[in-house]
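C-alpha cells in:
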C-alpha cells in the first residue's frame, strides 16, 4: 500500500501517531499500573475529564487476527483509573471506517465480535486459569455501543452482562472514537441472574487484564483483532477462554489512610484523601454542632494551616486546596474537644 505508513509488527512499533507514556516492554507484557482517583470521570465517551490527565496511555497494538495495518486503518490505546469499587477505562481508537453491527437484530451477541467491537478481559483474582470456559473465573466482555456480551461457552453460550458496565462512545474527531467505561468487578463466586456484589478494590491489588479491538471496515467479518498484550502462540485469539494469556492490571496510588493515633474512648472516624491538588477530610462523631479544628502539618511538625469548622451534622466533609504544596508525606490532625485523630497522607 504505497503512501501509507505500514506498521512493523511486535516489538518495534513506531508510535508516531499516538503518544504512549511508560516502558513499551512492560506494555508488550500487558502490565499496566492504574492510579487511584478521588475525582471520577463523567462517562460520556469523551476523555476530556481532568482526572484522566494523571493516567498513562498504553497501546492496543498487538495483531491477534489479520495482518498489520496502516495507522489510518487502525490505532488504539487505553488508560485506566480506579476508585474504591469501580474501574474506569478510556479506550481511544482511530479507525478509518466505523462499522458497528446492525441495530435491531434479534441475536446481538453471537456475531458482535465480527464488527467494530471492544473487548475487556478481567481475571479478578489473577488466577490465570488456562481454560475458564463455562465459569466466571474470568470474564471476556464484548461491547459495541449498545450491548455487553460474554461467551461463557457450554449450555448458556452467550450471556448478556449489560449491568456490569456503564459506558458511552463518542466520535471526538473525524476518525477518532473514545469509549469510556465504568466497570464493576466481580469475583469467581459470581452467579448469573443472582444478586452479586462487586468486590471492593484495594491498593496493590493485581488483576488479570487485557483490552482488545476488533476492526471491521467492510462486510460481515472482522478484518483484524488487536490486543494490549504480546501473545507468543501461533493462535493469538485465545484470551476469550484462556486467562493465562491476559496481561496484568495493578491498582496503585491510594496512599490515603494511615492512622497514626485515634481516640477510641469516644467513637469518631477520620478519613483523609488526596488527589489532583485537593485534600479531602471526612470526619464523623456522635457530637452534633461541635467545633472541629482541622490542622495540616509537614513531617517536621510545622503547621501549614489550622481551620475551625462547625459541624452541623454528625459528619463533616471539607476540601482544601493543597496544589501549592510539594509532593510528600503530611499529617492531618482533627480535634473535637478532647478527641484528637491523626492520620498520615501522601500528597501527589
Ligand atoms: Ca468523560
Ligand atoms: Ca479500520
Ligand atoms: Ca472499523
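Residues out:
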Amino acid at each position: 500500500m504505497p503512501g501509507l505508513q505500514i506498521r512493523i509488527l511486535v516489538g518495534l512499533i513506531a508510535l508516531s501517531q499516538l503518544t504512549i507514556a511508560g516502558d513499551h516492554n512492560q506494555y508488550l507484557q500487558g502490565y499496566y499500573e492504574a492510579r487511584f482517583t478521588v475525582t471520577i470521570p463523567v462517562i460520556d465517551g469523551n476523555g476530556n475529564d481532568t482526572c484522566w490527565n494523571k493516567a498513562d496511555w498504553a497501546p492496543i497494538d498487538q495483531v491477534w487476527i489479520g495482518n498489520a495495518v496502516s495507522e489510518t486503518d487502525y490505532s488504539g490505546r487505553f488508560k485506566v483509573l480506579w476508585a474504591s469499587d469501580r474501574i474506569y477505562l478510556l479506550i481511544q481508537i482511530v479507525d478509518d471506517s466505523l462499522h458497528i453491527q446492525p441495530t435491531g437484530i434479534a441475536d446481538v451477541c453471537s456475531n458482535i465480535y465480527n464488527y467494530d467491537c471492544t473487548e475487556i478481559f478481567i481475571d479478578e483474582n489473577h488466577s490465570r486459569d488456562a481454560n475458564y470456559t463455562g465459569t466466571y473465573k474470568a470474564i471476556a466482555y464484548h461491547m459495541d455501543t449498545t450491548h455487553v456480551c460474554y461467551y461463557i461457552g457450554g449450555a448458556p453460550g452467550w450471556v448478556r452482562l449489560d449491568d456490569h458496565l456503564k459506558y458511552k462512545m463518542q466520535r471526538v474527531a473525524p476518525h477518532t472514537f473514545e469509549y469510556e467505561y465504568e466497570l464493576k468487578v466481580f469475583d469467581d463466586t459470581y452467579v448469573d441472574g443472582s444478586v452479586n456484589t462487586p468486590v471492593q478494590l484495594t491498593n496493590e491489588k493485581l488483576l488479570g487484564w487485557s483490552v482488545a479491538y476488533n476492526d471491521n471496515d467492510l462486510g460481515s467479518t472482522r478484518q483484524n483483532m488487536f490486543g494490549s498484550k504480546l501473545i507468543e502462540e501461533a493462535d493469538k485469539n485465545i484470551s476469550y477462554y484462556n486467562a493465562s494469556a491476559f496481561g496484568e492490571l495493578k491498582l496503585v496510588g491510594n496512599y490515603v489512610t494511615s492512622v497514626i493515633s485515634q481516640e477510641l474512648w469516644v467513637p469518631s472516624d477520620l478519613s483523609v484523601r488526596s488527589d489532583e491538588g485537593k485534600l479531602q477530610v471526612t470526619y464523623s462523631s456522635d457530637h452534633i454542632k461541635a467545633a472541629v479544628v482541622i490542622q495540616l502539618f509537614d513531617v517536621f511538625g510545622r503547621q501549614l494551616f489550622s481551620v475551625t469548622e462547625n459541624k452541623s451534622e454528625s459528619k463533616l466533609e471539607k476540601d482544601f486546596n493543597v496544589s501549592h504544596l510539594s509532593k510528600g508525606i503530611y499529617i492531618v490532625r482533627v480535634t473535637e474537644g478532647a478527641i484528637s485523630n491523626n492520620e498520615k497522607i501522601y500528597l501527589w
